[in-house]
Write a structure and sequence with these properties.
The structure holds 2 protein chains of 2 kinds. By secondary structure, chain A is mainly α. Chain A has helices at residues 2-8, 10-13, 20-54, 59-62, 78-83, 88-119, 125-137, 144-153, 160-164, 171-183, 186-194, 199-210, 212-227, 231-236, 245-253, 261-291. Chain A is flat. Chain B is α/β, with parallel strands linked by helices. The chains are: A mainly alpha, B alpha/beta.
């Protein structure tokens, strides 16, 4: 905890040009870690860079060993060409609505379920929790047909809710959050109860603020999973108006004759940018919440 | 594989409800709904995969709107359904709940799967009343026939062909494409480049992932069709001879032990392999993405030339009203008409299914421009259907595993094929018993 603060506090206040000698020394003292981190960061960035560069190449350049790493001429036309195979704008809106809908619904259900399993006692609790855990073990493909029948009975085939409904509950999220709730000392909850809080009050004022990192971690996992989901949306939708981004990507990736790399990468840039942008905007908050979760 | 019982349950639930609803005829409820929604136009769905490139989505959308404009009584909805496997899964799921699409486009190997599900409309009589049996190329039509009955119209056939890097061949002083297995081996040896033991270029690559498809072609080149509709014949000496030839090429160091379908196409474009077995459907992509001259040749023969077909037909659902079946036929018939097929073949690289489509002036001009496209048509004269057995998915996996393990040197060719044969036939028998 203390060492973390030493590293985080001076950085915003570091004077850029004052006393060059001393600052060079401090830079070196603090910077040795960067010598290690910069190559690692580059390694992590390299796929993104490759995607970006490939999206601007001509088709013959992609696999030609004689062609250099950089495109000879920037082929911006790959972007309109990629986006013209499907209505990506509609897909983007749908993806946001589906992923957002799932995330919100899941946060509500897993919070309530996890609180119940962590802090309440009732008959059959352990059996019920085991059943929840079993749900994690079933691969999603095993439940496709039954889910399909259910969604059809609801009469919501070929609509956005069809892609949300099967995922509103999450055994994995419930498990994760239950473990986090159990880490919170019961004394805090007891104190809140003395102050007159009910279950919802305790949950809102005591538990949720303390497990924010877990919620965020789960949020990232679920957003990435459902943002990239391909098979289920493909199965339950027919019209272009309700389809999501991965289906558009599939048009370029899933072909018999080898993927159409330049256009596929152009479309990939478009598809991953919202997620990247979201992360860049909220990066500080993500990282902060992980750091300040020092409570044990 | 508990799919079938679940289907039965779904079917029962549906018919119960139909009774409750008091529907007079026990047609699929979806057909009823569909009919109710559009009094004037018969609504059809067409589920199709995108096999060659994303542009196919636009092409199909264009064809469908043209069809709809020309047919005021019918409205077709085009539904993109992923690749062939995804499409099959989507259709089977819809069949499972008793609400199949009117028409769909699977790979031809799935014929027995859909026949087994009793899901296909028999269009033999309709075809006989038409010019189908006269004008369609017989090898293509064959892929839709089971027990003498026609279940659908071929729409986008393809076969494997041998792709050649002409520039590399010129550099090696080779003028002629290999015509026999022996020549193939020699040319592959001459084209393989090693620098101090390190491999620079393979002579030949067989596109992995679909190498069982290419293997069936090799069997056919040995005058063996390695399956009948209720069993496979992988333990036949002709199949063993084909696999032993693969092992010989691998051991001579002219061919990699394994590859992937997309990776092998990429390797060819990058010049890391000089010859490649791949689908005719890849012609446009390989031509446009390679920095050298690409040529196409027949797959070399052994006892005979031989090939087998990928690609698929348009199939029509049985479980729909007669009016919808008629409308589906009108649609399938239009999609396989001379003009549409000529255009489709030129746009995609798939082989046009009608003789008359090849004779259109546009197609003639195209063939002058891209003579390679003609090779696949000529080779199609030797082509039959691909592995039309029940449960072909699993059978393909058994065979691919046998081929992979043999080339990796883990097992002898004869033992591998015997094992794949026994496993496949057990699976086929299991499915047939359940169907019976």
């Amino acid at each position: 905890m203390t060492s973390l603060q030493i590293q985080t506090i001076p950085s915003p206040a570091a004077p850029p040009m004052a006393e060059p000698a001393r600052s060079a020394l401090t830079a070196l003292r603090r910077g040795w870690l960067h010598l290690l981190l910069v190559p690692l960061a580059l390694l992590w960035l390299s796929p993104l860079l490759w995607i970006l560069v490939t999206s601007l190449k001509a088709r013959t350049e992609v696999f030609d060993p004689a062609a250099g790493f950089w495109p000879l001429a920037l082929q911006w036309s790959n972007y309109p060409a990629a986006l013209s195979v499907a209505p990506f704008g509609t897909y983007l809106v749908n993806s946001v609505m589906v992923t957002g809908g799932i995330l919100i619904a899941q946060l509500v259900t897993i919070t309530l379920a996890a609180y119940t399993f962590a802090r309440l006692t009732f008959p059959g609790k352990n059996l019920l929790f085991t059943l929840f855990l079993l749900q994690i073990m079933f691969p999603i493909y095993a439940t496709f047909l039954t889910n399909f029948v259910t969604v059809r009975e609801f009469g919501i085939l070929n609509s956005l809710p069809a892609m949300i409904v099967p995922f509103v509950a999450s055994g994995y999220g419930t498990f994760m959050l239950r473990q986090a709730f159990r880490q919170v000392p019961t004394e805090l909850a007891d104190a809140a109860r003395l102050d007159g809080c009910g279950h919802f009050g305790i949950l809102w004022h005591v538990y949720l603020p303390l497990v924010k990192p877990t919620l965020i971690a789960f949020g990232i996992i679920t957003v990435v999973t459902h943002w990239n989901d391909y098979m289920w949306p493909l199965l339950v939708t027919n019209s272009e108006g309700v389809r999501t981004l991965p289906i558009g990507l599939g048009l370029l990736a899933k072909s018999d004759s080898g993927a159409d790399w330049t256009r596929l990468m152009a479309a990939t840039v478009v598809v991953v940018s919202p997620l990247l942008l979201l992360f860049v905007i909220f990066q500080r908050r993500f990282v902060d919440s992980f750091m300040h979760a020092g409570l044990k | 594989m508990s799919i079938k019982p679940t289907f039965d349950q779904a079917g029962r639930g549906l018919s119960r409800r139909s009774v409750v609803m008091g529907a007079a005829a026990a047609i699929a409820s979806a057909a009823v709904l569909r009919g109710a929604q559009a009094q004037a136009r018969t609504k059809l769905q067409f589920m199709y995969p995108v096999g060659v490139s994303g542009d196919i989505n636009k092409l199909v959308a264009g064809m469908i709107s043209k069809f709809n404009a020309a047919h005021p009584a019918i409205e077709v909805e085009a539904i993109y359904a992923g690749n062939y496997d995804n499409t099959e899964q989507k259709v089977i799921t819809a069949l499972g709940v008793g609400d199949p699409p009117s028409t769909w486009l699977p790979i031809n190997s799935a014929l027995q799967t859909f026949v087994g599900l009793d899901s296909l409309a028999d269009v033999t009589a309709k075809a006989k009343a038409d010019d189908i049996y006269q004008d369609f190329l017989p090898g293509f039509l064959e892929t839709c026939i089971s027990d003498g009955k026609l279940y659908g119209l071929p729409f986008q056939p393809s076969t494997p062909v041998l792709y050649l890097n002409r520039t590399a061949m010129k550099d090696a002083g080779i003028a002629k494409a290999p015509e026999t297995w022996t020549e193939l081996m020699e040319v592959a040896k001459a084209l393989t480049i090693r620098d101090k033991g390190e491999l620079k270029r393979w002579g030949l690559t067989i596109g992995g992932g679909w190498h069982d498809w290419v293997f069936e072609c090799y069997c056919r080149q040995n005058a063996l069709v390695p399956w009948t509709k209720d069993k496979v014949l992988f333990d036949d000496p002709a199949a063993l001879d084909a696999l032993e030839f693969w092992v010989k090429m691998e051991q001579a160091g002219v061919m990699p032990k394994a590859s992937t379908w997309e990776g092998s196409a990429n390797d060819f474009m990058a010049g890391r392999t000089a010859m490649l077995y791949h689908s005719t459907g890849s012609l446009t992509n390989l031509r446009k993405s390679s920095s050298f001259e690409v040529d196409v040749a027949f797959m070399p023969k052994n006892k005979t030339f031989g090939a087998c077909q990928g690609g698929g037909p348009i199939m029509i659902a049985k479980k729909q009203s007669d009016a919808a079946v008629d409308a589906s036929w009108t649609f399938a018939r239009w999609m396989t008409s001379t003009e549409v097929q000529s255009q489709w073949g030129r746009d995609t690289g798939y082989l046009a299914v009608r003789k008359s489509a090849w004779e259109t002036p546009e197609m003639q001009a195209y063939l002058k421009d891209v003579p390679q496209a003609k090779v696949a048509l000529d080779q199609a004269a030797y082509a039959g259907a691909f592995l039309q057995v029940p449960g072909y998915h699993k059978v393909r996996e058994f065979l691919k595993s046998a081929l992979d393990r043999t080339l990796a040197g883990e097992i002898k060719p004869d033992a591998a094929l015997k094992e794949a044969n026994a496993n496949s036939n057990r699976e086929i028998q299991r499915l047939l018993r359940r169907r019976g």
